[in-house]
Automatic annotation (TrEMBL):
Name this polypeptide is given: CapA family protein
InterPro entries, sorted: Capsule_synth_CapA, CW_Biosynth-Accessory, Metallo-depent_PP-like
Family: Belongs to the CapA family.
Segments for region (Disordered): 22-52
Domain Capsule synthesis protein CapA, residue spans: 56-305
Matching PROSITE patterns: PROKAR_LIPOPROTEIN
Biased composition range(s): Low complexity: 29-42
Record PANTHER family: PGA BIOSYNTHESIS PROTEIN CAPA, POLYGLUTAMINE SYNTHESIS ACCESSORY PROTEIN RV0574C-RELATED
Length: 375
């Protein structure tokens, strides 16, 4: 991340100050012009706000440190190589951390898969160029609420590190879980929020009780989306670019569900400029929706197994976003590009080239068509 990108605290107060100029009063005997009088002085042209530089936002999907990836946390500085360059090249990089973090607790009863990592996971993300990590997903509390105090201590330490990592979508209560990370990139403020909308079937995945409430810690759960929509509207009032990272959709599906498409439209209508997500464990379409840009599914990124061809395809989506000229305007994505990759037997993404890269581009177009998005 360039040195001119300055991280702000989780809550950033933006104050607008004005300057009022007063003219010297004329003496009382100075005659006033008659209504028919004309002025030969040209009217001053209204000042145009300076055009701000676009910001580059990078997004990747699900990351954990299970199986073949577990030993990589012994050296966090290289844990996610070779993906570091693609993430670090952007002004702001955002991913989903699909694991519980910390110590203590025990695996949640009834869950088929439970993922765990030490606080080194946050260090690994930072070294890979990640700036914001979402933990609003169905694995953040895999080791129960007994681990949460340890998790929150690690979150605070990550935010105070140099460089800092902002962890969103989890908190000591609902208000904190829905707080955005606010980042200054030059003179542009980017707000990033996270929430989980993944359907919770208590007979298969008993994580519905993980939602943070007014009096209980947990994740930002938006299965009832009113709280998330309110948070987006509030962020749109104070930030230039609003990003929402969601855990949503149906696992194994390459096209977004009707629920995904419906909530995406509502979020863009509420002020979200970029909406991205994961949970399907494979890529879904990305493109324009109304005034915003949506990437329904970013797939797996660092995963214990490459799985099938569909689940192994991954990459980094980079969006170039032009900030609005005025706070009342909308940001706009002016360019999108993928670093195409595939997950190998080592659990890490490796760049595609040649025919494989061409197939990736063709598949991206097919996925965009089934998602109802445009270029």
């Amino acid at each position: 991340m360039p040195s001119w990108v300055r991280w702000c605290p989780v809550v950033l107060a933006l104050a607008l100050t004005g300057c009022i100029q007063t003219e010297d009063r004329r003496s009382s005997h100075t005659p006033s012009p008659t209504p028919s009088a004309t002025s030969t002085s040209p009217s001053p042209e209204p000042k145009q706000p300076p055009r701000r530089e676009p910001v580059r936002l990078a997004f990747a999907g699900d990351i954990h440190f299970e199986g073949v990836l577990a030993d990589r946390l012994r050296d966090p500085s290289t844990a996610l190589a070779p993906a570091t360059a693609a993430l670090a090249a952007a002004d702001l990089a955002i991913v989903n951390l699909e694991t519980s973090v910390g110590t203590g607790g025990s695996p949640e009863p009834g869950k088929r898969f439970t993922f765990s990592a030490g606080r080194e996971a946050f260090d690994a993300l930072t070294h890979a160029g990640v700036d914001v990590a979402s933990m609003a997903n169905n694995h953040a509390l895999d080791f129960g609420r007994a681990r949460l105090p340890s998790t929150m201590r690690a979150v605070r330490a990550a935010g105070e590190a140099d460089p800092p990592l902002s962890v969103i979508g989890i908190g000591s209560d609902q208000q904190q879980a829905f707080l955005p990370a606010l980042t200054e990139v030059g003179d542009t403020v980017v707000a990033t929020l996270a929430a989980s909308l993944a359907d919770q079937d208590p007979t298969a995945d008993p994580t519905g009780h993980w939602a943070a409430t007014r009096t209980r810690s947990g994740i930002a759960d938006a299965t009832a989306p009113s709280r998330l929509l309110s948070a987006v509207r509030h962020a749109d009032e104070t930030a230039d670019v609003v990003v929402v990272y969601l855990h949503w959709g149906i696992q194994g599906e390459s096209c977004p569900s009707p629920d995904q498409r419906r909530i995406a439209g509502r979020l863009v209508g509420a002020g979200a400029d970029v909406v991205v997500g994961s949970h399907a464990h494979q890529l879904q379409g990305d493109g324009r929706l109304q005034e915003g840009y949506v990437a329904y599914g970013l797939g797996n990124f660092a995963w214990y197994s490459p799985g099938t061809g569909a689940t192994s395809r991954t990459g980094v989506l980079t969006l170039t976003v032009r900030p609005p000229a005025a706070r009342s305007g909308r940001a706009r994505v002016v360019r999108s590009s993928w670093w195409p990759a595939a997950i190998g037997t080592d659990g890490l993404p490796a760049a595609l080239a040649g025919d494989a890269a061409a197939e990736f581009r063709a598949e991206r177009q097919d996925l965009r068509e089934c998602s109802g998005l445009t270029r």
